[in-house]
Amino acid sequence: MVLSDQLRLAGYPVVEAANAQEAVEVLRHGADVKLVITDVRMPGSIDGVELARLVKSEYPDVKVMLASGHLPAIDWVTHDGYFRKPYEFDKIIQRIRILMD
User: What is the pTM of this model?
Assistant: First the structure.
């Protein structure tokens, strides 16, 4: 939620999802989503890595950024950015600006 607040303060519209399945439903219902930010570890039947794979295969124009407090890097899944926790909000927002240009 802190990340969502920081993104809103930076001027970005934010749609939050409680888990990956809810995020997929948001995408499938035609929301104008340009970027998905997901933690690698998420509750439910789909984790963040599987969500990234699904987004990249079904919505190739949507960018995906991954975050984790447990892994040093995520090289085995296609993504547009990776951030370790705790977040450095300025770096995340800088990467988003690059991706959205």
Answer: 0.88
**CA–CA distance, 94 with 97 (Å, rounded to integer):** 5
DSSP for residue 66: E
Give domain limits for the chain: 2-95
In one-letter notation, the amino acid at residue 6 is Q
- The residues with which 65 forms a beta bridge, in sequence order, are 37, 81
pLDDT in 10s for each residue of the chain, 101 residues: 789 999 999 999 999 999 999 999 999 998 899 999 999 888 889 999 999 999 999 999 999 999 988 766 666 678 898 898 888 999 999 999 999 97
Residue 29's Cβ-count burial label (10 Å; 0-12, 13-18, 19+) is: exposed
Write out the two tokens for 58. 């079904």
**CA nearest neighbour of 48 among 10, 26, 79:** 79
Q: What is 2-95's CATH number?
A: 3.40.50.2300
